[in-house]
Amino acid sequence: MTQPAAATPATPGTRYAYRASLIGGGQSFELADDGLVWSIGGKSGLWRYDTIASVRLSYRPVSMQSRRFRADIEYGSGERIRILSTSWQTVALMAPQDVDYRAFVTLLHQRMQQAGSRAALIGGLKPWIYNIGLVVLALLGVAMAGLLARAVATGEWAGIVFILGFAALFGWQIGGFIRRNKPRNYTFEDLPKELIP
Question: Which of 13, 63, 131, 158 is most buried by its number of CB atoms within 10 A?
């Protein structure tokens, strides 16, 4: 009696799925031989690798998950899909999927390169959003410096400690976001490490 042949396992990184919210259905993606196959809600499609117009990688933390990354993929027709590195599990839990996300995004770039893609490869935020963020940070920095100077002048030691602690925490959180999301272009051979988990 012959044994049935075992199914060939999928190449690591060719499939990725996540839940963007608790209410909506899951989203799934597969790197097939002829293109990116996607299924979001009731819609699905296949985008050939050489017709993908752009890929934007960014770092997008949220309160429930401080290490969340995002890939925005735009098709030649203007359609867009978004792939996140986290998935909703329960009302209070958003689980990271760092290894699977990294493998999928890396392999997507490899397949696009092999197909001769001329897609725009962009890292970080859009320049105008990034510049607004820098202006807001500068204004907050001036305001914090003014509060600190007033606290020092009046000898309010508790106020000084609070302002310094708040500034350190704010600088660590927001500074990391701004540093990672600096607008840039990248190549298929050199994906930005700070924008992939």
Answer: 13
Top mean pLDDT of 105-119, 130-144, 168-182 is at 105-119
Q: Token pair for residue 153?
A: 């002048």
Instruction: Give me the amino acid identity at 161.
Output: V
Q: How far is CA 59 from CA 16, 156, 185, 194, 197, in A?
A: 18, 38, 15, 8, 9
pLDDT digits (tens, 9 = 90+) for 27-44: 899 999 989 999 998 889
Q: Is 163 helix (H, G, I), strand (E, B) or coil?
A: helix
Report the C-alpha gap between 51 and 76 in whole angstroms.
6
Q: What is the pTM of this model?
A: 0.79
Identify the residue whose tokens are 């930005």.
Answer: 192
39 burial class (0-12, 13-18, 19+ CB within 10 angstroms)? middle
In this predicted model, what pLDDT tens digit does every residue of 35-90 receive, in sequence order? 999 999 888 999 999 999 999 999 988 766 678 899 999 998 889 999 999 887 77
**What is the domain partition of the chain in residue ranges?**
15-124+182-195, 127-177
Alpha carbon 195 to its chain centroid, in Å, reads 6
pLDDT of residue 60: 87
CA distance 77 to 63: 34
**Pairing relationship of beta strands 43-47 and 52-59 according to DSSP bridges:** unpaired
